[in-house]
Task: inverse folding
């Protein structure tokens, strides 16, 4: 879905997943004009209308990508939305791994005893029936 801004001509790409069924506000990445859009099943219910709103509004859903009429990308903080991460909670953290003496991966980090509560591995290690 494309929102071509009539004021500045910037093409704002409203990516299908978050905008498939969407009723709310988005913002032109070029000139920061806030638009009210209503999209149902991937097609526009009504044309986007410029509305009053501040460009810093937290409930704005920013376009995923935008480019100018001469196909230069518009990027930057507050212009377009960052790409979604598969696991946002572990992004950038080192993975707990163990390598052998040849440098090959052999395992993740060893589990701590408190992580084995109620598990089969703890029953095997302690030789006791779980309570
Ligand atoms: Zn614009």
Result:
């Amino acid at each position: 879905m494309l929102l071509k801004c009539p004021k500045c001509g910037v093409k704002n790409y409203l990516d299908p997943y978050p905008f498939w069924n969407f009723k709310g506000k988005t913002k032109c990445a070029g000139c920061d004009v806030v638009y009210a859009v209503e999209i149902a099943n991937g097609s526009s219910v009504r044309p986007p209308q410029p509305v009053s709103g501040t460009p810093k509004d937290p409930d704005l859903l920013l376009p995923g990508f935008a480019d100018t009429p001469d196909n230069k990308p518009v990027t930057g903080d507050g212009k377009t939305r960052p790409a979604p991460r598969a696991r946002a909670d572990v992004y950038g953290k080192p993975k707990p791994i163990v390598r052998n003496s040849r440098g090959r991966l052999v395992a993740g980090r060893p589990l701590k005893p408190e992580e084995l509560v109620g598990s089969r591995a703890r029953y095997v290690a302690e030789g006791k029936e779980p309570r």
Notes: The pocket of zinc ion is lined by residues 5, 7-8, 10, 28, 30-31, 33 (CB under 6 Å). Residues 22 and 79 are 19 Å apart (CA to CA).
